[in-house]
Amino acid sequence: SVHALMLDEKGEAMTAGRLQINSAEEGQIRSMAVRESEQKNGYGTKMLLWLEEEARRRRMKHIVLDARDIAVQFYLKNGYVVEGDSYTLFGSIVHYRMKKTLNFEL
Q1: Going by C-beta distance under 8 Å and a sequence separation of 6 or more, which residues neighbour residue 77?
Q2: pLDDT of residue 105
Q3: pTM score
Q4: Residue 6 CB contacts under 8 Å (≥ 6 apart), including other chains
Q5: Rounded to whole angstroms, what are the CA distances from 35 to 17, 26, 67, 78?
Q6: Tens digits of per-residue pLDDT, 16-47?
Q7: SS percent in the chain: helix, strand, coil, step 5
């Protein structure tokens, strides 16, 4: 796995994410989080783009993830599509399986 962390000017965690290597062709975004006070400032998108670029560097063909229902719109705006239901955490936090095919610039 590749772990990424964005720090603020005080050196405190602001955004985190992980690219799990499922296979040579598939990466999985895990543990994405943005500090609540920093949400809607573009840091989640920056983190996601960085993780996607890391997957491209590794020549992965696609990325999958399990998004909480409240995060689905964020991932849709970033080019992911819903493939179906995933799981429900603690009996109430619904997740959806999402996927993005990675393009490579020549």
Answers
A1: none
A2: 64
A3: 0.90
A4: 13, 14, 15, 16, 43, 46, 47
A5: 12, 27, 17, 19
A6: 999 999 999 999 999 999 999 999 999 999 99
A7: 25, 45, 30
